[in-house]
Amino acid sequence: KMAAAAGAAAAAGLWSEVNRCGQNGDFARALKSVNKILQINKDDVTALQCKVVCLIQNGNFKEALGVINTHAKVLTSDVIAFEKAYCEYRLNRIESALKTIQSASQQTDKLKELYGQVLYRLERYDDCLAAYRDLIRNSQDEYEEERKTNLSAVVAAQSTWEKVVPEDLGLREATYELCYNSACALIGQGKLNEAMKKLQKAEELCRQSLSEDSDVTEEDIEAELAIIHGQMAYIMQLQGRTEDALQLYNQIIKLKPTDVGLLAVIANNIITINKDQNVFDSKKKVKLTNAEGVEHKLSKKQLQAIEFNKALLAMYTNQADQCRKLSASLQSQSPEHLLPVLIQAAQLCREKQHAKAVGLLQDFADQHPANAAEIKLTMAQLKIAQGSVTKACMILRSIEELQHKPGMVSALVTMYSHEEDIDSAIEVFTQAIQWYQQYQARTNHGCSVFQPKSPVHLSLIREAANFKLKHGRKKEAISDLEELWKQNPKDVHTLAQLISAYSLVDPEKAKVLSKHLPSSDTMSLKVDVDALENSHGATYVRKKAGKLTGDNQQKEQGQGEVKKKKKKKKGKLPKNYDPKVTPDPERWLPMRERSYYRGRKKGKKKDQVGKGTQGSTTTGSSELDASRTASSPPTSPRPGSGAAVSATSNVIPPRHQKPAGAPATKKKQQQKKKKGAKGGW
What we know:
The protein is mainly alpha-helical. Among the domains are: about 1-105, Serine Threonine Protein Phosphatase 5, Tetratricopeptide repeat (Alpha Horseshoe), CATH 1.25.40; about 410-515, Alpha Horseshoe (Serine Threonine Protein Phosphatase 5, Tetratricopeptide repeat). The chain is about 65% helix and about 0% strand. It is found in: Cytoplasm; Endoplasmic reticulum. Keywords: Coiled coil, Cytoplasm, Endoplasmic reticulum, Repeat, Ribonucleoprotein, Signal recognition particle, TPR repeat. Belongs to the SRP72 family. This is Signal recognition particle subunit SRP72.
């Protein structure tokens, strides 16, 4: 009895210690005291509960869950359902947490709060929205602001991932979290400018709220703002401002935020901006998407987008095996998704295996008819790249849900025209027009009352008529033009086309229809011709003519008659012209450009030195005889003599004469210099 009393006293003291440590938040010390209590009584339910709580507070979720499972007989779901579900939630065992919550006999407020979080992680947004609405309606405590923030986060997720137009919850955006979630919802709707303004407001509120705390540094504020700046950069990227977005993304990465989810999203967005450029940077950034815990921070669609981009990056970096491995893995996870098979086909095309790529796409289209349209469009593109335009047309015409679309009709007609297959092009028009006629009959429920055709229907008929007229199919175009005129009898342009077509087929009918044309008075345009001609934009301005008198008029008329009588003069023939001989066809070309030109013959220079045997000259020996030159009389007149050179004389004064052999000598010297240069001195 004394031992039992001593044990009870020790236990009481330990419980006091546990209570005191719990109030002080010292759960590590409290855990030691709880363990001592359990040594006294290992099945003490309260002690076991306290131990689980202490372990949770210390972040030891796995150990806490182990204690719960070990003592499952004592710690039943009624006693410790919340703690068990919370441990499973924190260990990312979301499905198990949901089962634990649903198996609890009593749904407490704590379980309902956790239930909302679990539904959000499971991306069951409709159920999550209902759960938070119920909590807000039936709870009144200090956590109301947090519940509203979670509610707005659910709405933002619906708008972003499920493309649901969010309803106005009437939440007052007094905190930066609420502003941020509202901005995310607007991004999901495509309202980027409004979303940017919300994010700017969120940034301002965040700075205000954090700056009030003196312990918070500027680095802490920037770290908190990182997620807001990340969304701002994303909006810039969507708006095409890629340089600004890239700069902001890199600024966030330099801060080294602890949120691995944020870093993974930013790295993925940078990779999408780089595309097939700057692949070295992309390969560095892709490492951030592989960080531990990323899969628990992002939604399924975000993770899927990251995996798609990894496969594309492998393709751009010529890692064919890695690309095939990633795309095959993605296809096994989402067999109905288009992107994996498109990536595989793109990789095959890079390897010049176009036929295999088309076969792969065809197999997917056969297995998934719901997604066949987009796949067949890709197949047609591959066929066009191969030059098989007709086969591409056949593939496009097999897409029944797109046959009547104006874009598809235009593409097919253009392709058939390129192949000069006019009959097939007209057939495309006919099928599209018939589809709209059948659609109109269905909507009118067989009513025989005249119903106007839709603008798209009328546009197709007009394009068909114009196409037939262009290619000379007048008779076929007449029925289309009549249908258009019937829809709008006041359309003068259609009537004019119809008359033009009938004039070549049935002139009498054209005359009858021409009576429906409006009179020239009603069609006249009120245009000041003089003002138009005198305007700056006119290419021809008529000069203002003055009043002509009678004589001037006669003169002008006379000049006009003279001009009319003028005849073109016949060209003069050369003197040696022989009509029997065919003229030289190259006579208009310069002599040097004629085919028979053989170059100019060099004439013999009589006075050229160097001709003949060595030492001989062409100049007479008497001219070079110095003795004879000395005795010859001077050619210049003596001073005082009356002899003078006449103006008509051909004699050149001595000072203007050149030595007889000077040019030749100079030329010879130049030749010697050139010879010396070739010698390589």
